[in-house]
Design a protein that fits this description.
This protein has one domain. With 325 residues, it is an all-alpha fold. The two termini are 39 Å apart. Helix 5 (135-169) runs antiparallel to helix 7. It has helices at residues 2-44, 54-63, 75-95, 111-131, 135-169, 178-188, 198-212, 223-226, 236-261, 268-293, 299-324.
């Protein structure tokens, strides 16, 4: 008993140290993906485009500048919001397993905690837009709230479908442990190749562009319309933290999709290689090609789209899982 307690205490102490390379590596990987995306989109549109490391240069440049606070804005809240958003995504990355590479401790949270953490960036953007005192920020706030209400429903249906599918196989009705979900697929095959799960897979793929602000769903931060909306008045390190938040959210959403539907059974170096390849492929398909080929929707069009197709896919997926069980 004494040795067991020592092991648990040691694991609790070492967990933050283990998280450091995971989260730092996720940030580096995310910035590289953004650089590849900008370069690829430029080439698809027959432009030269920026250098591959431009996202790194942007962060470094912003960190060297001063953060300006608009007159009348609550200074402490205005500057605390980007820090809160970026910290929430670093915490979320610590809850997402990278199969064969990293397993999060179950004592820190499960799928429900991750669901709440994923909502924080959108809430932070809404608060940023409302506290800035800018008209463009207020418009971005209303658009962010509308699109969030639209895509949260399909996401919840997808997570419940996967949780019920795994729970029923374990003699329970539902389980929200991501590690249980990953281990079940490693033993029984990935959900990506299960026809009963295809509606849930499609619903999750539909959720990604709106959550990450990818065209045609980049309506809250439309540069040509509302000058980046909630971020219009941000500059310097505060704006850099928002860019870090966006980068980390990209990796969290992609890694969560891999854990939910295609974790794989590799370990060691090959597990890392396949994780990077799967994230890159999903990112380029759901962002680069969309961004280069489609225009921006209106907010009402995006809202109706999510309440129609992804919502229906989520409901169908949940119905099929319950029927199968």
């Amino acid at each position: 008993m004494f040795e067991m307690m020592n092991t648990l205490e040691m694991k609790t102490i070492l967990t933050p140290l283990i998280l450091l390379p995971v989260t730092f590596g996720a940030l580096i990987f995310g910035l590289l993906l953004k650089g590849i995306d900008r370069l690829l989109v430029a080439r698809l549109q027959r432009r030269i485009g920026p250098p591959l490391l431009q996202p790194f240069f942007d962060i470094i440049k912003l960190m060297q500048k001063q953060s300006m606070v608009p007159i009348g804005a609550p200074r402490k809240l205005f500057l605390a919001l980007p820090l809160l958003g970026s910290c929430s995504m670093f915490l979320a990355m610590g809850l997402v397993p990278i199969p064969g590479v990293y397993e999060p401790s179950t004592q820190f949270g499960d799928l429900l905690v991750l669901l709440y953490l994923l909502a924080i960036p959108a809430i932070v953007l809404m608060l940023a837009g409302s506290t800035s005192g800018s008209t463009f920020g207020a418009i971005g706030f209303s658009r962010e709230m509308s699109i969030m209400l639209a895509y949260e429903g399909p996401l919840l249906l997808v997570l419940v479908s996967v949780a019920i599918k795994t729970g029923l196989s374990q003699g329970e009705f539902i389980t929200f442990s991501l590690m249980d979900i990953v281990r079940y697929q490693q033993l029984n095959g990935s959900f990506l190749f299960d026809p009963w799960m295809w509606p849930a897979v499609l619903a999750y793929l539909s959720f990604i562009p709106a959550n990450l602000g990818i065209p045609p769903f980049d309506i809250p931060e439309a540069e040509s319309e509302v000058l980046e909306g909630p971020l219009c008045e941000y500059s310097g390190p505060a704006l850099a933290l928002f860019k870090i938040m966006s980068t980390m959210k990209t990796i969290v959403v992609l890694a969560l999709g891999i854990a939910l539907f295609c974790p794989g059974t590799n370990t060691g170096m090959w597990a890392t290689v396949f994780f990077v390849l799967k994230c890159s492929l999903c990112f380029l398909l759901t962002k680069s090609l969309l961004r280069a080929s489609v225009g921006r929707m209106r907010i009402d069009q995006a809202f109706l789209f999510y309440f129609k197709w992804p919502e229906i896919l989520g409901v169908v997926g949940l119905f099929l899982i319950v029927l199968q069980g």
